Amino acid sequence: LILGILCQYSSCKLLNINKSNQYRLVFKLLTIQVSFMTCITSIPQLPYQITTNKISNSYIASARNLPESSGSSGRLIGSLQALRPIYKFYDVSNFIINQLEQSLDLSIIRATLLDTFPANEKDFKKYFDEYSQDISYRQQYLDKNAFLVYYTKGFDGPNRKSIENNDESEILQTKQYGYRNEAWISFKDAIEEIDYLIESKTVDTSDLKNTVAVLRDSLNSYLSLAPDDQKKSLGL
After folding, report:
1. For a tag site, which of 30, 151, 173, 176 has the least CB within 10 Å?
2. For residue 190, with 0-12 CB atoms within 10 Å meaning exposed, 13-18 middle and 19 or more buried, which class applies?
3. Is the model's pLDDT at 131 over the cut of 70?
């Protein structure tokens, strides 16, 4: 504010304005400056907080949180070789459902699950990611610039489609990752349910059957996304 007054006074001197008019002009400019600063400080605080790693506000676009890498090699994407382990998971989950109908020892079922499926989430998902479509550059851009994309409504230049429009490979990738995540959750729930049944010596396995059925169905849905020739090779 003080610097502004000095600058205004110096300007008057340079323009050879007489002293009485100098004071009058400086006073008017000072009044305008104070009014402007009052308006600025009276603006309400924006309804979000910017932190070092995110913008937190339910009204503002947030990052899409793409799945973290599971460490897959990326060399076998879409290959029959990478799909075979998923089919084995499906086959074993189908077998376990049949065994539960025969009231097989739960400890044997537990051992079968853990011998077939990786107990670690990252290792579990790695099997799926070896086959699944990789995350595209466009999806990475959307994830890193979600705030900008939201407020520009996906504008990507004149006469061009919105950048938010997915192509077929990205739609496939989204479905594959969704079924993968569902399979992991149901597998983890099945192990926890078995542990509970063994510890409590409960004989009702209906919840366990339902959980393993979800595991089987999610694996079946994942396999259904494969090309027809690959499904035929696996006997599906």
Report:
1. 151
2. buried
3. yes
